[in-house]
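This section describes the prediction task in plain terms. A model, or a person checking by hand, is given the sequence of a single protein chain and must write out its three-dimensional structure as a string of tokens. No templates, partner chains or ligands are provided. The sample shown here is typical of the held-out split.
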Amino acid sequence: MPPSYSSAQKSALAEFTQVTQSDKNAASKLLKQHNWNVGAAINAFFSNASNGAPNPVHANANKLFDKYRDDPKNDPDEINIEGTSKMLGEMTIGVEDISAFIFSELVQSPALGKITREGFVDGCLETSCDTLPKIRNVVIQRRSQLSADPDIFRNVYNHAFVLGLSNNQKSLSQDVAAEFWSLLFSSQGFAWRTRTSPWLEWWLEFQKEKWNKAVNKDLWRQTLTFAEQTMKDETLGFWTEESSWPSVIDEFVEWVKTEKRGGGGDEAMDVA
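The expected answer:
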């Protein structure tokens, strides 16, 4: 009797065989060894020479990566600012466009303007892309889904925090955080405003005038969670003093009630 697989395992098998071009029996064996973690199994497959010739995507992705390296001799496994800008330019992706954030999440860039070989090749294998036009198509597709697919947007949003760090910092400067929020919470991504409440404008105004401190990882992520809640309930009925929001969000809520809604009531002021 053939083995029985769950729907998740069938999906893992399909993804693994598509990327590696291996047969189903070999795929199931390696996936089981790695607890059905597709990424780990794929990495193990390509690191084992006994598996035969590498998948064409793997080889082509490496060749494509090599083309854009800034300093092949000293940094053979990195693409830095010049190479990254050239690659984005050839895909007609502006460095200040949200598509650049999508691309950076796809290849797991460790910093703005930097791409590692491992992240680039893994991203190509995950999406079965080995040319710039194919990568660009994936970026365009994901951009079109940002406002409709919370998971895609959250992945891009969370990775943006990593991109904004510099010099071993653990928090974003207020200026960088504000710049990133302005882009991510715009109509390009997750438009943070409701019928009567321009949330992004208020958030940036409050951050600049009342808070003006560095933004750590927890606050960055909680801001998205808070934004999602305000889109469902602009009266802030979900917020209570007993809620476990960061203190800056608590202060923001009080500021909105006092400064923007005339004294603490739950009724939103009409700003249309």
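For orientation: The chain has three domains: 8-54, 57-145, 169-260.
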